[in-house]
């Protein structure tokens, strides 16, 4: 189907996939060809675009079409994209990440961090997230900052999903900040059924600390890291180098666990105590609020 014949964003993405298939080029080769033409087309960005059903940004479309060798029809591609955008098929920001391709847990992660803007709620530290998580052990936060009750014991390590305890049908996974000011992935709560990737791996590092890894079938692995002042402070995103990622302490509490960044005094919660789909995870003052309780379930 030609780009001017598509009727919705899903059809546009399907046409892009067919163009890539006809080109016979890999993601890496397309990235390299785009660079030689003076374009920026990160292979992780392109992989993300082609697995979604929302319109990519015009500059991504242009770089992709040129790299595939269809430059003579670039005007038709951009016109089709703009026509669909005008009808409400709005483009969604795409994270530029560079994952490893091995689906097994590894010591080094490959998800690129991006800068983000501060959020308007009582936050403490930086927290970002990049992709859908898998089920492992149950996490929950205490309704206060005090003594543990009904200790569930140490969480199992391995493949997991992490879910807000009060909305157990939602999973912490790869998403975007709702203000749309940050191009990289962050941790948000989305319906688990719609978040099969990336997979989440809970890696014990000793002394009761854990690293949260995300594994994507095309983009590889990254480790969740709390973002600082130069980004969207307190939100979680997957980082390229797992050795620099945040370590988390799982504190037993009332049959579940608190999720606390090591070396800090905060707890992971949901921005503005929000229960809606798409709300971002963030480090905030430990208050015992319901949004600071999580389930971690074995996959």
Structure explained in plain terms:
- The structure is a single chain.
- This protein has 299 residues and is α+β, with helices and mostly antiparallel strands.
- The protein has two domains: 84 residues; 203 residues, Trefoil (Trefoil (Acidic Fibroblast Growth Factor, subunit A)), CATH 2.80.10.
- It is built from five helices and twelve strands.
- Strands 1, 4, 5, 6, 7, 8, 9 and 12 form an eight-stranded antiparallel sheet that branches. It has a two-stranded antiparallel ribbon with strand order 2-3. Strands 10-11 form a two-stranded antiparallel ribbon.
- The longest helix has 15 residues.
- The chain starts with 8 loop residues before the first helix and ends with a strand.
- About 21% of the residues have low confidence.
Which keywords apply here?
Trefoil (Acidic Fibroblast Growth Factor, subunit A); 2 domains; eight-stranded antiparallel beta sheet; 5 helices
Question: Could you give the order of the helices and strands?
Answer: HHHHHEEEEEEEEEEEE
Beta strand %: 15-25%
**Total domain modules:** 2
What percent of the residues sit in helical stretches (DSSP H or I)? 10-25%
Radius of gyration over C-alpha positions, nearest whole angstrom:
20 Å
Distance between the termini: 39 Å
Molecular shape: elongated
In round numbers, the mean pLDDT is 76
What's the total count of β strands? 12
- State the CATH architecture of the largest domain: Trefoil
């Amino acid at each position: 189907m030609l780009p001017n014949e598509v009727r919705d964003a899903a059809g546009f993405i399907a046409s892009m996939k067919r163009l890539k298939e006809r080109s016979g080029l890999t993601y890496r080769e397309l990235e390299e060809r785009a660079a030689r033409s003076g374009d920026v087309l990160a292979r992780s960005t392109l992989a993300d675009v082609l697995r979604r059903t929302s319109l990519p940004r015009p500059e991504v479309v242009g770089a992709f079409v040129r790299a595939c060798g269809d430059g003579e029809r670039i005007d038709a591609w951009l016109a089709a994209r703009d026509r669909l955008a005008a009808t409400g098929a709005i483009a969604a920001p795409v994270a530029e990440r560079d994952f490893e391709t091995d689906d097994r847990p590894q010591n080094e992660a490959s998800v690129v961090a991006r800068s983000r803007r501060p959020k308007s709620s009582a936050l403490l530290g930086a927290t970002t997230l990049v992709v859908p998580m898998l089920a492992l052990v149950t996490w929950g936060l205490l309704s206060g900052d005090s003594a543990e009750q009904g200790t569930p014991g140490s969480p199992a390590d391995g493949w997991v999903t992490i879910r807000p305890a009060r909305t157990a049908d939602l999973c912490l996974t790869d998403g975007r900040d709702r203000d749309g000011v940050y191009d990289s992935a962050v941790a948000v709560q989305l319906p688990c059924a719609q978040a099969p990737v990336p997979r989440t791996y809970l890696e014990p590092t000793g002394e009761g600390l854990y690293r949260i890894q995300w594994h994507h079938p095309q983009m590889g692995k990254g480790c969740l890291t709390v973002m600082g002042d130069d980004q969207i402070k307190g939100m979680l995103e997957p980082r390229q180098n797992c050795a620099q990622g945040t370590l988390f302490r799982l504190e037993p509490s009332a049959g579940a666990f608190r999720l606390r960044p090591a070396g800090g005094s905060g707890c992971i919660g949901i921005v503005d105590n929000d229960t809606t789909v798409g709300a971002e995870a963030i480090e905030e003052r430990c208050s015992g609020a319901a949004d600071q309780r999580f389930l971690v379930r074995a996959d």
